[in-house]
Amino acid sequence: MSALRIGSFLYSVLRLSTPLIFAALSAAICEKAGLFNMAAESMMLWGALIGVMVNGWTGSVWLGFLGGCCAGVVTGLLIALATVKGKADLMLAQIAINLASGGGTIFMLYVVTGDKSTSAMTIKSQSLPKIALPFLKNVPIIGRMLNNQNLLTYGAILAAILLMIFIKRSRTGVHIRAVGENPNAAESVGISVSRTYFLTWAISGLLGGIGGVFMSMGYTSAFTKNMVAGRGYIGLCASSMVRGNPIGAMLCAMVFGVSDAIANQLQLTNAPVDLVMMLPYAVTIIVLIIISVIKIRTHVRKIKNKASQVV
């Protein structure tokens, strides 16, 4: 395989990994706070739809980006309101909001455009810019992979680094980790658990919303029915693999991006379409099984070691 083809494949991997990285980071910040975020799918859906609508109405791609971010934050805060203030069960609340978002985005799209499938024919939205890096132009493979990516692709890598610094170094990040490890102990030293949960869900929603904006204003230039297509759940899987470590979550998301890129390549062959489209989700299931087996064996080994020490 030539260097050009390898570079093109890696370019596709990075591009396809971008929404997965944002979804993984959205889940990672929640995991550090002891929360389980399976609503990144909803955050991304609303971010994608509202971003396109604001973009089309104002003619500004940046206001569209801001609108999508706000939509993700609002989604996260709704979960916090239902679970922290309303004392609703976290899992049930997220299942409810995921179901409501799947139908709600289609309903809003229909009300605004009269179309239940896509905004492409009725809302003229723009795409966020791609960034040219002239100094990488002649670098084999790396230049092809990194040059002319969408702004949010670089933003996803930067977001993972900044989130890691935020969690490890900032006072607020320390509070989030303290609440995640032991909320009662955190409360006893003056940390407001409810405020920390609200802040965590807001940051999570922001990251999920940006991932959705990429889907409708980077990956494509329109909102399409159910366009997130399970990427929020794949991001959750990527985060769970590394226990919420932002850099690790980004790298795991890229692994799933590889499977997505391979699926796209296979679509150009005579391989069965349904089988090809299933590949990223099959990889997710296989990875989860492998991780579960490793965790079980590690747990059994620890029990055996403790038993031998007692004897």
Structure described in brief:
The protein has 311 residues and is mostly helical.
Descriptive account of the structure:
This protein has a single domain, classed as Orthogonal Bundle (ABC transporter involved in vitamin B12 uptake, BtuC). A two-stranded antiparallel ribbon has the order 1-2. Helix content is 76%, strand content 1%. The mean pLDDT is 89. Helix 1 packs antiparallel against helix 9 (193-219), helix 2 (40-58) runs parallel beside helix 4 and helix 3 runs antiparallel to helix 4. The chain has 311 residues and is an all-alpha fold. The chain is built from twelve helices and two strands; from the N terminus they run ααααβαβααααααα. The termini are far apart.
Secondary structure layout:
Elements: H1 3-32, H2 40-58, H3 61-85, H4 90-113, E1 130-131, H5 142-146, E2 149-150, H6 151-169, H7 171-181, H8 183-188, H9 193-219, H10 231-241, H11 246-266, H12 273-310
Antiparallel strand pairs: 1-2
Helix pairs in contact: 1-6, 1-9, 1-10, 1-11, 2-3, 2-4, 2-9, 2-10, 3-4, 3-9, 6-7, 6-11, 7-9, 10-11, 11-12
